[in-house]
Amino acid sequence: MPTIHLDLNQSILKGGQRLPLALAHRTTDAVALALSKNPPPKGGRGVWLVSVAFVGPKQMQSINRHYRGKDRLTDVLSFPLQNPPAKGGRGGAAEWGQGGRGVVGEVLISYDQARRQALERGHATRDEVVFLLVHGLLHLFGFDHERPVDAKQMFPLQERILKSLSIDSRL
Q1: What pTM, to 2 d.p., does this model score?
Q2: CA gap 48, 144 in Å, rounded
Q3: Is the pLDDT of residue 165 over 70?
Q4: Residue 62's CATH number
């Protein structure tokens, strides 16, 4: 089973806005367990470090514009730092999927956008933040939803992870 170590930067958040470390670790453990049963497109075994940071709305919009060409606020962005290996080759700083160690990438979450979405949809902001963390982590490991065939793989996995965390997957 992969192990996901979390470097969590919540410095811009205040008090009750912060994601409790125990919940953050339960979330990464749930993702790791799911990845052990559903091998991801980009590796998944080994010990992996993931950086998660909360950023303000202006910074998130700027990053979204710079990296995705979309000049609007978004809720979560994922930046993989390794490339999957070519057939028989090596990828990034560590070998993917071979019991390696390495930095997988970074997930950025806009707390303000998460709070807005939670209010609009009538659920807790903390549940929305966990949803975004799970979603971002799956992207780091190569799951996607741009094409229907990819969405059929990613969304059911995301739903199972959220259910294991007692979070309504219909968020």
Answers
A1: 0.88
A2: 19
A3: yes
A4: 3.40.390.30
